[in-house]
Amino acid sequence: MPADHARTAAATHGPDRSIGGAPILEVRDLDVHRGEAHILHGVSFDVAPNRVTALLGRNGVGKTTTLLSLLALLPSTGEVVFDGDPLSGVPTHLRVQRGIAYVPEDREVFSQLTVEENLRLAMSWEGASERLGLVHEVFPELKRRESQKAGSLSGGQQQMLSLGRALLHPAKLLLIDEPTKGLAPIVITEVVDALQQATTDATVLLVEQNLRVAEELATDAIVLDEGVVAWSGTMDDLVADDERTRGLLGVGRATRGGAEGQR
Amino acid sequence: MSLQVFVLLSVTGLGLAGVYFLIASGLSLIFGLMDVLNLAHGLFFTVGGYATWWVMTRFQWIESLGLRFLVAFLIATVLGLAVGWATERFFVRRFYGDHVTQILITLGISLAGVALVGGWFSYDPQTFPVPEFMRQVAVIAGARIPVSRLLILAISVVLLVGLLAVLRRTRHGLIIRAGVENRQMVQAMGIDVAKSFTLVFAVGGGLAAIGGILGGVFFAGVTPEFGLNMLIFAFIVVVIGGLGSVEGTALSAVIVGLTQQFVNFFAGAGVGDLTVVVLLAVTLLLRPQGLLGEVAR
Ligand SMILES: Nc1ncnc2c1ncn2[C@@H]1O[C@H](COP(=O)(O)OP(=O)(O)OP(=O)(O)O)[C@@H](O)[C@H]1O
Ligand SMILES: [Mg+2]
What we know:
The structure holds 2 protein chains of 2 kinds. By secondary structure, chain A is an alpha/beta fold.
């Protein structure tokens, strides 16, 4: 892909660089097939450091696919530059070692391992011991249930474990896929509070269906539609135009549900 | 049934279970972690048996049979580790995810192994002398039990405990247990899971080779098809126990070993083997994930 095209794409779609500084992640022309289906048709966006960027879009549009491709868990073409270095050809575990942490859509805790063992898998990172203290502070439940099998935790507790294990990683970028999926409103509140606490100053690319939650956590937004980035800008700008929000996401201010009402 | 017969059949069945466990445990971990159906696993077993036979019959300069057996044991184990390592490193590694090719490659290794061993040493059964103490009998509850059976049982139990300790207490073990459940997520935590693949193949090869040593003692000799024949029962043990579960493999090995011995004794030779196949069918119908297996993702 020609370089000037990349610049144009960044200028139109990238979030405001003057606030966040040089992007930590630059994605150009990401193209992904899954089986017979062509899911992403050249997705380009930037993620600015030290803030939360929401990756939005209707069900099945390819948000999870995007995160999996960034981690090389799915094959893709296009260019991904992380922290100044191109990632093409870099396998999953080395991408993670370079500073990308991942909280998958369905938690994917190791159900046969205890809570403590799940966390211990992530304890080889530098400074993990201090971080474990913080994780236990944010999620005291994980300390209390240390010797419980992760498979016997409730959905919310599994989500905390999945988040906790990612937070042990001194990551430069956190990829979080639908942390509130399938959780009761009261638990959503709890997870959102914890996320707010844990991600201050962190760089996060957050997939979130719940627009209320996305609004609460994210400053920037990227919206996928029909395999490309359909809109990007600040979260405030996105929700300011109710009609556009409804058009892109199928929900608007009037209809969206959320955690707020449950507090 | 007299108590003596019961004790003799039990100890013999448990000895056989020990041999099954040693070959099946590696097979189970390899399948659980890598989704590789390793048909070459029988070769690791044969390598152990033949290395033992070779040392016991050729190393006559070591006069003490006990010492010679110890040397045979060490050489056979190291060879098993090496062959397991090399199988992963040079063959299986290139074909992860490609099940048909894996089956063809490992089956090829397995058959080539039989031909190689047979061509080199002859297809006739080979026997080897065992240390004096193994040929003695111990009297337990009135039953006369060959000491070799007790030794096989003891070595198997020690290795089971050791394997479980490694899996439960070391970082490698933690990674392997996590990887059996969800390999991708292990990678997504920044861990190079491929290193564990090689390790599991090597350890599986070593354990199967020890199974071959003990199998050679148990069956009083070795043949080139020795490992291939054991592999069939090892697969049955793995499937009944649950893929990827070492505890399940141990439990299943005991059930299969005892069933075979008792049924063969009371219903006639051969019926025991058939009963084991029926056990397999019943397990697959009632609990397809195996006794202690999890539904893997
Ligand atoms: N293994 C697969 N093979 C073929 N198609 C797949 C596969 N997995 C997902 N897809 C398809 O890829 C598309 C994108 O899926 P993806 O999971 O990325 O969507 P998403 O935006 O994360 O959706 P959701 O909001 O529901 O989580 C969907 O249409 C889905 O049906
Ligand atoms: Mg998704």
